[in-house]
Amino acid sequence: MSFLSLTALQAFLFALVTIGTVLALFFLKLHHRRVLVGSALLWQKVLHDRQANSLIEKLRRLLSLLLALTIALLIALSVGRPYFTASEAALQPVVIVMDTSRSMDASTASGQTRWEMAVEEARRILDAGHFAAGVMAADTAGRVQTTVMDDPNAVLEAIGRMRPFSGSGRFPELPSTNARTYFITDGVAPPNGVPADASVVSVFEAADNVGITAFEIQVDPTSTSGYTAFIQVANYSETPKEAAVVVAGVGGQRVVRGANLTPGGIWQEALDLAGFEGGGIQARVQAAGDRFATDDVAFSYLPVRGRLNVTLVTRELDGYLETLLRLTPEVELTITSPAALEESVSTDVYVFDGVASSTPPERPSLLFGVADVSWLPSARALDTEIEISSWNEEHPVMRFVPLYDLGIDAATVVDPAGLNVVAASGNTPLIMVNENPGGNRTVITTFALDDSDFAFHLGFPIFVENVLGWFSGETLAETSGLGEIEFPAGTVDISQLDGTPLDASPRAGGAVVELNEPDLLTATANGRRIRVAANMTDPESSDINGTPLADVESGSTPLPLAGNELWFYMLLAATLLIALEWWTYNRRITS
What single-letter DSSP state applies at residue 59? Predict the structure, then answer.
């Protein structure tokens, strides 16, 4: 037997003191008052009966003494929290794994969050008793993991440092294959690798949720503002919901819509942003009874861009490219021929249609087709078997530009050295960009508009708008989920929408920040400004009721009562012996 609160020597001394105290009290002689009587004849029979029953009386006193000693020792030693140590073969470390997925932030009917209920369940497991082989705790975010400890309080302190995290989770690696594992979860986003023999402790309770599952600002040439905000809202509650959807800009502009949502229903709309000033745009949804706040807010960015002086260098007048540029609201268009280009032209952007200047332009340039000039990649061959194999949708010039059905008759094969290929047909570059930090940016298509249907393609107006925005430094925000957000190498001055700076950690040649709430981030990378709209707009994350544990009662996993500690049973035995001693005393069995 071992003790948690006392050493073996302390327990032995405490037991001796207890025995001595009980013996002293038991044999303490009372000083009877002397009384004078006229005769002892009346007490002769009493004295005779007492002598005849002395053996029984001694047994009664001995039984009383044993009961008193046993009760006192049980109570005294229980203070030291004794326990039995199991054999080595039966030892099992206990592992408590906390599900830190974001759905654990959902509130319950009691006002507690699922996470707070999970912490209580962990405390219930730790209070169940001493674990002879030790106990440890870990979370599914990979942020907190203890070693195997003998101190349950230290493990509980580590659990107190854990928090629900927006990001992908994983089940931690266990220190032993024979560990007794408790996985405390709501079951909404279970990680891979949960052992089959793990005891799943459910903290799931159904909760109403109406959340934003999509919010993006997109280029829309048909809109009066040139941009459209697409928003989608879903109801993951078991009852119908009436929701208010508000889209607001930094200048106080607001668009308000009402949405009537059936259980599992979706509401969506494309909103014209005419009248909105450029800058951060916030979308918010409000619904009565909503118990999950993270997906109630989403952010995006409306580019702030003044008028651009664009010079179109072309041999063709009144072509589709000219028409598109004339209809673009922020473009002040000038048209010139290749010969006239030699003259000084004041412009912000050059667009070359099948031609190019003999020297590199002093302004950002968009070129359709590769011309035979020294500052452009030299032509190697002509590829007439074009099939789009890849395009980089993450680059600012390619966002929302689908190319899967683009038809190209021929493209020039060039060496893309020093250029970033954002669209290709096998080894043939189709669209290349020159980032040129500190200089003029360039976008080159290796095919002419006349050799493709790009000018009539749905994505062409968006492509041109993206390029102009990239040239001006004002582009649509990149999108990201919550959790760890990666920025390219050379990124500095990362800040939130309210200007609060964020500390970045280096990671694989770039930088990473951690964000657990929706926000619009701004940073500078290689001389250009980057904006990232970080939102929780994943429908699976908003479905906080999608779990196989819906029918499992919270906290129903059985735990061993008092573990292998004995204090509970010792106090129970002492209570029963006190009741027995009272019963025997009243029946004159003990004295």
Answer: H
Token readout for 242 is 């009436």
Cα 355 from Cα 377, distance rounded (Å): 14
- CA-based nearest residue to 205, from 294, 291, 100: 291
Of residues 239 and 473, the one with the higher pLDDT is 239
Closest-CA residue to 457 (of 392, 394, 388): 388
Q: In the prediction, which pLDDT does 54 show?
A: 63
DSSP result, 292-326: --GGGEEEEEE-----EEEEEE-S-SS-HHHHHHH
Indicate the pLDDT class of residue 506, thresholds 50, 70 and 90.
Answer: confident
Strand partners, 137: 96
pLDDT of 113 > 90? The answer is yes
Longest dimension (CA), the chain: 154
Beta bridge partners of 403: none
Displacement of CA 35 from its chain's centroid (Å): 87
Give the CA count within 13 Å in the CB-facing half-sphere of 215: 34
Question: In this predicted model, what pLDDT tens digit does every residue of 544-590 receive, in sequence order?
Answer: 998 888 777 665 566 544 445 676 778 888 888 888 888 877 777 76
Residue 264 burial (CB count, 10 A) = 11
Element (H, E) at 56: helix 54-78
Q: What SS3 class is residue 119?
A: helix
* Cα–Cα–Cα angle for 124, 556, 198, rounded to 5 degrees: 80
Provide the pairing of β-strand 135-139 with 266-272: unpaired
